[in-house]
Fold this protein.
Amino acid sequence: QWEKKRRPELLRMFSEQEYGVTPQSTDIKVKYELVASNPKAMSGLATQKQVLFHFTGKNGKTHQALLLLYIPNGIKERVPVIVSYNFHGNQTTTLEDDVIPSPLNELMKSEGSEKWVRGEQASRWSYELALRHGYAVATMNYHDIFPDSPDLRKFSILPLLPEYKNDLREANEWGSIGVWAWGYSRIADYLEKEKWIDKNCMVVLGHSRLGKTALWAGVQDKRFKVVISNDSGCGGAALSKRVFGENIARITANFPHWFCPAFNIYSENEAAMPFDQHELLALVAPRHVYVASAEDDQWADPKGEYLSAYYAGQVYHLYNMQGLPSEKQPAIHQPLHYDIGYHIRSGKHDVTEYDWECYLDFCDKVFSAKKE
Ligand code: GCU
């Protein structure tokens, strides 16, 4: 009943009323061009590849996005991969000086800004840790798929779609979270063909708005076996009906392009929603979902994030899988790794090495259980 009736019903609600409907077929062709590679990146720890995605629409319009991939060296078999967008360009995720700046940099960065410089967000990217754990990591700047501003839709991949209109949005038309999620699936398309990647062990991970995106991507694309939300908050893991921290009125006013226009109906009106975010997490079952919170990130409602992960457990039980054991949120730095994962750490809204350690442990558990 869950698979035949309730899952499709919920998926339809999230599509029609929150993120917008992902087009069934976009008729967008993608070609991959290896623009740089380095077999001895990170002091020999990894092979680095930079792959330019060339998108072409049926209408002849084109678009480009740049993927950065690190594959651990010295492993004889295919490896799992963590796919995760970055906020400020591939070049900000590491100090390695051969990483090419992401294409849409110039469009987004304000003059004189200290952001966007090489390595600026490196603390959020525990590449070495992941590589030593035997994981590849693939990243792309999310602005490459849809520059994150309501005025910049025309620079996204959207104009490649025949039905695209710049000024008018249908009530259920996908917002940028939907478009970014589509982009995650295009990265999966590429990785499936990559010789050293184990396509049965693909993980999607995202922070904050990109955590909302990772969840929506992971729900729709079953190739992602572990779906990780880092501090995703409102419109991500947090329950909307608690109306704690950020709420629907604020998020839709500040970021009108993220969701479909129909989501505005629930602004100041969460109680009327026929669904809530724990049901989004449940749509990942029987694959694995992980939610992480930060103590000082009250805007994202850590308790609401936890409860959502807890209530998603009801669906995991249908598969004889184990959800989180108690409605009570665990203490700081006490990760819970059942078939659903959760941890809360000290500190602010961010991605830290501690978060990566927890994710890698959880993924190890999931993937080694599969091999047995
Ligand atoms: C803002 C927004 C959040 C979002 C965050 C981020 O704080 O209100 O919903 O998650 O930006 O993406 O960093």
Summary: The chain has a mean pLDDT of 96. The pocket of alpha-D-glucopyranuronic acid is lined by residues 208-209, 233-234, 246, 251, 299 (CB under 6 Å).
